[in-house]
């Protein structure tokens, strides 16, 4: 189901919740556009990953250090 | 000697080693050219002629005493201004860091200094290697030497512009979503993003840890290989550095392409996104030339370009936001508009989205690298459009994401952008040659064969 369209008021509240209280209205419009673009990317990446599909970076211990 | 601005590193090294060219004379010629023309191009954020002359005098004395150190001894170079050079500010082209003086050299700067290179200055970038071209920063954006009204690509903008303009034969850039190869493509020079971990990122301001690469921009493929020979190598102080032998990147240059298997990722620029017709024609002509030279050329398929781009951008914006969150919270007004909007894109990426992007990254990368059991290298587009006007905001936004470079930041494999001609309006066209991890020497071999047959390197911009 498609997500509800984000509004400027909603993004203002979301920004405040993570401490971004100094964004001007213009900055908030930018945040809104950028967040919408990120959500579009999420849809593109909604691939059929299986439980065993590992991330590109897994924690291993090799010769002398962690990666 | 009248053609000093167009000397290649290889040619200059030969002359300098044989004491037929003075490093001081060479540096002075380029300084004069920069002083005359850079006010039109803004390739330098901080031009350093005094430091250049100091380096040049030292090189002259050492070479005169028989102490030639190698191909970069007495050769001018520049550093993108996210790369530390001890004693000078590393501003990242941002008001945020305008007084950030580096206390030590970055690993690549150390190597160039130790090689006796002549440091000419710090080069313009997009703000924090992501926000540009921008006119709302303390310094203007670099412009395209082929036509100063046009965009020169980014984020290693000054590195591309300075190299193409004959200000320097070689420059250092960085590449997280294509930022060495974009200015290389738009300025008509060669630009390598080596395999992840081959060149140390120590002392380079990060954009996104798992996608950041340091690379080289030069006018010829041979020079690019020479520069990578110098800057590659394990660095225990960079957690992403690979501990394996590097170098030998010029070793295969003269072997030609006869019998090599070249896969063409055509769907990136004809189906997934449709490239500008002049760009497609330029790339297709270059591929035909490789076939004439004896390569076995065939089309290959990988995941769709938008999937690669989404994967790159999800990881990039998430990692970049983690780096910039404090400043975005405390002083958002001190960023330029383009950097601020692009960085804010990471604010509300969910943890699961980031992890899933890295899971997709592994799956797509494994599948892509498996193709190299049947091909030696692949070719595809670099930019899908020729440069647009630098003052055309709509065109900048429209074309910014139309590129096929970011897939190879995702894979971490090597990718080289090389010129394939010019538009009717005289602006550069380019393609990429990409390979399996650590196959840089093979990529240079293919690129050199094409470069020699095509002859584009003989053409220079009129400033």
Describe the structure.
The complex is a heterodimer of chains A (67) and B (463). Chain A is mainly alpha-helical and 67 residues long. Chain A has one domain (1-51). Chain A has two helices and two strands, in the order ααββ. Chain A has a two-stranded antiparallel ribbon with strand order 1-2. In chain A, a hairpin with a 2-residue loop joins strand 1 (61-62) and strand 2 (65-66). The longest helix of chain A is centred in the middle third of the chain and has 20 residues, at 25-44. Chain A is elongated. The model of chain A has no long low-confidence stretch (mean pLDDT 86). Chain B is globular, with a radius of gyration of 20 Å. Chain B has one domain: Amidase signature (AS) domain (Amidase signature (AS) enzymes, Alpha-Beta Complex), CATH 3.90.1300. Chain B starts with 8 loop residues before the first helix and ends in a 9-residue tail after the last helix. In chain B, strands 1-3-2-4-6-5-10-11-9-7-8 form an eleven-stranded mixed beta sheet, sandwiched between helices. Chain B has helices spanning 9-17, 23-41, 49-64, 107-114, 157-164, 181-187, 221-231, 267-272, 277-292, 305-330, 337-344, 351-370, 393-400, 406-411, 440-454, and strands at residues 44-47, 76-80, 118-123, 170-175, 190-193, 213-218, 261-264, 296-299, 377-381, 415-422, 428-434. Chain B is α/β, with parallel strands linked by helices and 463 residues long. The model of chain B has no long low-confidence stretch (mean pLDDT 98). Chain A binds chain B through residues 14-15, 18-24, 27, 30-31, 33-35, 37-38, 41-42, 44-45, 47, 49, 53-57, 63, 65, 67, and chain B through 210, 239, 243, 306-307, 310-311, 313-314, 317, 328-333, 337, 340-342, 344-350, 353, 355-363, 365.
């Amino acid at each position: 189901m498609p997500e509800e369209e984000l509004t400027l008021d909603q993004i203002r509240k979301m920004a405040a919740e993570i401490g971004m209280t100094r964004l001007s209205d213009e900055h908030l419009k930018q945040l809104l556009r950028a967040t919408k673009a990120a959500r579009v990317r999420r849809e593109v990446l909604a691939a059929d990953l299986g439980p065993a599909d590992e991330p590109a970076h897994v924690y291993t211990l090799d010769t002398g250090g962690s990666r | 000697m009248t053609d000093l601005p167009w000397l290649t590193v290889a040619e200059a090294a030969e002359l300098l080693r044989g004491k037929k060219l003075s490093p001081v004379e060479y540096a002075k010629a380029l300084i004069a050219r920069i002083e005359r023309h850079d006010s039109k191009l803004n390739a330098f954020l901080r031009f350093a002629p005094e430091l250049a002359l100091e380096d040049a005098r030292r090189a002259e004395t050492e070479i005169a005493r028989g102490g030639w150190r190698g191909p970069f001894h007495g050769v001018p170079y520049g550093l993108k201004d996210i790369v530390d050079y001890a004693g000078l500010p590393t501003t990242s082209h941002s008001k945020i860091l305008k007084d950030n003086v580096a206390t030590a050299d970055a690993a690549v700067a150390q190597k160039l200094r130790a090689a006796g290179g002549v440091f000419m200055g710090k080069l313009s970038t997009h703000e924090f290697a992501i926000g540009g071209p921008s006119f709302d920063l303390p310094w203007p954006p670099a412009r395209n030497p082929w036509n100063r009204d046009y965009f020169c690509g980014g984020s290693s903008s000054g590195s591309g512009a300075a190299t193409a303009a004959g200000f320097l034969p070689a420059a250092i850039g960085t590449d997280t979503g294509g930022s060495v190869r974009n200015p290389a493509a738009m300025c008509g020079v060669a630009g390598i993003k080596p395999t992840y971990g081959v060149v140390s990122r120590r002392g380079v301001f990060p954009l996104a840890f798992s996608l950041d690469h340091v690379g080289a921009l030069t006018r010829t493929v041979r020079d690019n290989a020479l520069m990578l020979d110098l800057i590659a190598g394990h660095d225990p102080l960079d957690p992403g550095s690979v501990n394996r032998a590097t170098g030998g990147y010029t070793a295969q240059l003269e072997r030609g392409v006869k019998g090599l298997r070249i896969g063409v990722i055509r769907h990136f620029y004809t189906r997934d996104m449709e490239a500008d017709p002049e760009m497609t024609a330029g790339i297709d002509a270059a591929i035909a030339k490789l076939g004439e030279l004896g390569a076995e050329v065939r089309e290959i398929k990988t995941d769709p370009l938008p999937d690669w781009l989404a994967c790159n951008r999800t990881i990039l914006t998430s990692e970049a936001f983690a780096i910039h969150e404090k400043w975005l919270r405390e002083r958002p007004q001190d960023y330029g508009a383009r950097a601020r909007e692009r960085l804010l894109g990471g604010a509300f990426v969910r943890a699961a989205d980031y992890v899933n992007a890295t899971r997709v990254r592994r799956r797509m990368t494994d599948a892509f690298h498996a193709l190299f059991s049947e091909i030696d290298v692949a070719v595809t587009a670099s930019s899908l459009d020729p440069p647009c006007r630098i003052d055309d905001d709509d065109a900048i936004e429209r074309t910014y994401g139309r590129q096929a470079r970011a897939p190879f930041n995702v894979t971490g494999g090597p990718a080289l952008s090389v010129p394939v001609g010019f538009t009717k309006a005289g602006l550069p066209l380019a393609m990429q040659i990409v390979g399996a991890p650590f196959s840089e020497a093979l990529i240079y071999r293919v690129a050199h064969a094409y470069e020699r047959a095509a002859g584009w390197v003989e053409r220079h911009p009129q400033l």
